[in-house]
Write a structure and sequence with these properties.
This protein has about 475 residues and is α/β, with parallel strands linked by helices. The protein has two domains: about 5-220 and about 425-440, Aldehyde Dehydrogenase, Chain A, domain 1 (3-Layer(aba) Sandwich), CATH 3.40.605.10; about 225-410, Aldehyde Dehydrogenase, Chain A, domain 2 (3-Layer(aba) Sandwich). The protein is about 45% helix and about 15% strand. It has helices spanning about 5-25, 30-45, 50-60, 65-90, 130-140, 155-165, 180-185, 200-210, 235-245, 265-280, 295-310, 345-350, 365-370, 385-395, 430-435, 460-470; strands at about 95, 105-115, 115-120, 145, 170-175, 190-195, 215-220, 225-230, 260, 315-320, 335-340, 355-360, 380-385, 400-405, 420, 425, 430, 440-445. It has a seven-stranded mixed beta sheet with strand order 10-11-12-9-8-13-14, with helices on both faces. A six-stranded mixed beta sheet has the order 5-4-3-6-7-16, with helices on both faces. It has a three-stranded antiparallel beta sheet with strand order 1-2-18. Helix 5 packs across helix 15. Pfam families: Aldedh. One of its GO terms (biological process) is aldehyde metabolic process. One of its GO terms (molecular function) is aldehyde dehydrogenase (NAD+) activity. InterPro entries: Ald_DH/histidinol_DH (IPR016161), Ald_DH_C (IPR016163), Ald_DH_CS_CYS (IPR016160), Ald_DH_CS_GLU (IPR029510), Ald_DH_N (IPR016162), Aldehyde_DH_dom (IPR015590), Aldehyde_DH_NAD(P) (IPR012394).
């Protein structure tokens, strides 16, 4: 461990203590103060949009400015605004009915902040996936520490700069550093820990949190399937699937990871996907709207997955693509792999890049069985003209979220909870679900000064017998 990392670890421990002390001194931040916090984030994102776009672009080597606007800037403005506008309703006391056997009295739920939250953010959407959990935590009345990814250092430093201008460190703090710092961060006794990243690391985060009995939200990934029914034109489906797959060069946790299309249509569909990709991103090697891969290591890994599939006999189709003309641009061509063997890495690992396996299915029951033999995915997409066919497929499968006839857009609906199930994670956020993630729902029963429950105290007699009859109905 370097001296810099050691200092960062010591710093974050002291920041945590400061935040816990500040929360103890002010555990019930008012709704108006919280709304003001959210407004500050909303205005900051607007004001520093160009700076964030530049930082993310520099971290990637090339990140589409349009994709940054859609998935980071625009998303966060809408998210913070939605939370601010709905906070009063979300935070209100929730009245509950009181059974006759416990009357008179009042029952209700108080929605209270958990305390200090830790947020571990990944590199693929480095601004959105740091700030969206922060918005939820601040809406709930928590204080928060954020650990951005070391793979996007410029964005991490900009987050640290902008948030330090808005909040004192005992309210919101950004901790930078490498893997050792991240590990030590997850070992801290937060009141809630929120992690977005790989399933492999997610297991280690859960283990670290368990040592402190810290509740944890895991937003992971996996192999999100897309299934095309026989009544849907595969060339038409290819248009939106290509957009969803190659947006951010496939570096999206809910990107279509593989496609199941009716047997006999695999090549037709694959060619339509590549044709769509070339229309969307012509000359992708030099097109500023086609995002590069985040690191050389990741670029090499994607290339290895494709070559392994090719060596295994799978057909590979790629968009026309020259070597990237600019030094440091790690662009990889939109790629489709037709009918790869199920035992190769391409079909075992989350791809997280611009490579789309396509396999044939023998009907929707067969497709559902294929999906269900694997870990439960973060997202699932089904293309069908018949609503009954689509809904029947959803009945047959389990996934964190789903969309019909379009990929990815479910995560942009502000009132839909976003999260995984099984190996793709647990817990959810966005909208009220995010507010509740960082909230303790405290159950309260208020009895009057004298309550009939005293009549059934020991020694048990006739009043207890009467009470027993009431309970029996």
């Amino acid at each position: 461990m370097s001296e810099v990392e050691t200092r960062q670890i010591e710093r974050m421990k002291s920041v945590l203590e400061a935040q816990k002390s500040a929360f103890a001194a002010e555990p019930r931040r008012s709704i108006e103060e919280r709304k003001h916090d959210l407004k500050k984030i909303e205005e900051m994102v607007k004001a520093r949009a160009a700076d964030f776009a530049e930082a993310i672009n520099a971290d990637y080597g090339r990140r589409s400015a349009a994709e940054t606007q859609i998935a980071e800037i625009g998303f966060m403005v809408a998210d913070a605004k939605h939370a601010r506008q709905n906070l009063t309703k979300w935070a209100a006391i929730k009245r509950k009915s009181v059974p006759m056997t416990m009357a008179p009295g009042k029952a209700y739920v108080r929605r209270e902040p958990k305390g200090v939250a830790g947020v571990v953010a990944p590199w693929n959407y480095p601004m959105q996936l740091a700030l969206a959990p922060l918005v939820a935590a601040l809406a709930a009345g928590c204080r928060a520490m954020i650990k951005p990814s070391e793979f996007t250092p410029r964005t991490a430093e900009l987050l640290k700069e902008t948030l330090s201008e808005l909040f004192d460190e005992d309210h919101v703090a950004v901790i930078t550093g490498g893997p050792e710092v991240a590990k030590a961060f997850c070992d801290l006794p937060f009141d809630h820990l929120f992690y977005t990243g790989s399933t492999h690391v997610g297991r280690m985060v859960a283990e670290a949190a368990a040592k402190n009995l810290t509740p944890v939200t895991l937003e992971l990934g996996g192999k999100s399937p897309t299934v095309i029914a026989s009544d849907f034109d595969v060339a038409e489906a290819a248009k939106t699937i290509a957009w969803g797959k190659y947006f951010n060069a496939g570096q999206t946790c809910v990107a279509p990871d593989y496609v199941l299309t009716p047997k006999g249509t695999e090549t037709q569909f694959a060619e339509a996907v590549i044709a769509s990709a070339q229309r969307y991103w012509p000359h992708g090697e030099s097109n500023a709207d086609y995002t590069a891969l985040v690191s050389e290591r990741h670029h090499d890994r994607i290339g290895e997955l494709v070559e392994e599939a090719r060596s295994a006999g799978a057909q590979v189709i790629q968009a026309e693509f020259d070597e990237a003309p600019e030094q440091g641009i790690r662009a990889f061509p939109p790629t489709v792999v037709i009918n790869p063997p199920e035992d190769i890495r391409l079909m075992q690992e989350e791809i997280f890049g611009p490579v789309l396996p396509v396999l044939g299915h023998d009907g929707m029951v067969d497709a559902a069985e294929f999906v269900n033999r694997r870990d439960r995915p973060l997202a699932l997409y089904v293309y069908a003209k018949s609503k009954r066919t689509a809904r029947d497929f959803l009945d047959r499968t389990i996934s964190g979220g789903a969309a019909v006839n379009v990929p990815m857009l479910h995560l942009s609906v502000e009132d839909l909870p976003f999260g995984g199930v099984g190996a793709s994670g647990y817990g959810a956020y966005h909208g009220e679900a995010g507010f509740l993630t960082f909230t303790h729902e405290r159950a309260v029963f208020e009895a009057p000064v004298w309550h009939p429950s005293r009549l059934i105290a020991p020694p048990y007699g006739k009043m207890f017998d009467f009470f027993k009859k009431l309970q029996a109905g």
